[in-house]
Write a structure and sequence with these properties.
Layout lengths: L4 H11 L12 H10 L5 H14 L3 H5 L3 H8 L6 H16 L8 H5 L6 H10 L10 H12 L10 H10 L5 H14 L18 H4 L19 H14 L4 E2 H5 L5 H13 L4 E4 L2 E3 L3
Antiparallel strand pairs: 1-3, 2-3
The chain binds a DNA duplex (11 and 11 nucleotides) through helix 2, helix 3, helix 6, helix 8 and helix 9.
DNA sequence: CAATCGTGGTA
DNA sequence: TTACCAAGATT
């Protein structure tokens, strides 16, 4: 498996995408913003929002100085708007606890709202050059196939999986390995219809060598959507985002027919601090 | 550990 | 058209 590195790094050198948060002059703040936006969200959708976000809030201090509702509005249709709220909270924490500078250690990064294991490792690696296992869905799939011989990684990260990722992590240039293996998973070793013909390690891929056996693990749950509270919340948030100011209850009523579910969703959004009630029958993004 | 949390592109 | 799924975190 030690022979994975050279081909993948060579492939990355030739095929890497030119993403703005990878540029040499990207700030640690820019890297952090990109990583949070990229959680469960495709690169293509993040690009324009990241650019607008960084222009408006080039530093954590700039974001922390504004109401959370502005962050939620700027988040647009990226999805999972609690990420916008947490990014704002992270900016505030960076101001208060780290003197305005994005922290450079895994532990300190992990202490920020909305930053979990992946994001902490990614920022420490990509913004500061630290050596960490950066275990995202792409890397997990690449290792599952090339080393373990399975089509897909399991539902959650296992201890064995983490040990494997640690064993593969090179001593030198760990961040380069992290970004290269992620990029391979994103562009070639994709979940559906992998482009094995373009893969630099196809000849040593355990999954291929085993005849590309179909996934036989536990069923991978799909994400229910139609008619769910999530869809209802999304509708309500879209109405509030697109409005200039407070919105009357009757307007929200028009966004979702089922009154009981609508009320539950609205209560949940307020509980999450994504929405606030500003009058007897009016609601708005938090000011 | 499992459930929850948005959105839109693609096959 | 439906189903899958994209650089996860939190509870």
């Amino acid at each position: 498996m030690s022979t994975l590195h050279a081909p993948i790094l060579r492939w990355y050198d030739r095929h890497q995408r030119d993403l703005p948060w990878r540029s040499a002059d990207a700030s640690a703040w820019g890297v952090l913003v990109s990583e949070v936006m990229l959680q469960q969200t495709p690169v293509a959708r993040v690009l324009p929002v990241w650019a607008a976000w960084m222009e408006r809030w080039p530093t954590p201090a700039a974001l922390a100085a504004e109401p959370t509702g502005e962050a939620i509005r700027m988040w647009g249709r990226l999805g999972y708007p609690r990420r916008a709220l947490r990014l704002h909270a992270a900016a505030t924490a960076i101001e208060e606890r780290f003197d305005g500078r994005v922290p450079d250690t895994y532990e300190e990064l992990l202490s920020l709202p909305g930053v979990g294991d992946y994001t902490a490792a990614a920022v420490a690696s990509f913004a500061y050059g630290a050596r960490h296992v950066v275990l995202d869905t792409n890397v997990r799939r690449v290792l599952a196939r090339t080393v373990a011989g399975h089509e897909f990684a399991g539902a959650s990260v296992t201890a064995a999986e983490r040990r494997l990722a640690e064993a593969v992590l090179p001593t030198e240039d760990a961040p380069l390995w992290a970004v290269a293996s992620m990029e391979l998973g994103a562009l070639v070793c994709t979940a559906a219809n992998p482009r094995c013909g373009a893969c630099p390690v196809a000849d040593q891929c355990a999954w291929r060598l085993a005849g590309s056996p179909a996934y036989d693990g536990p069923p991978r749950r799909g994400q229910a959507w139609a008619g769910t509270d999530r869809q209802c919340r999304g509708r309500l948030m879209a109405v509030l985002r697109d409005a200039d100011g407070p919105v009357h209850r009757t307007v929200l009523d028009g966004a979702w027919a089922d009154a009981e579910q609508r009320e539950r969703a609205l209560a949940g959004l307020m509980s999450d601090a994504l929405v606030e009630q500003v009058g007897p029958d009016t609601y708005a993004l938090p000011g």
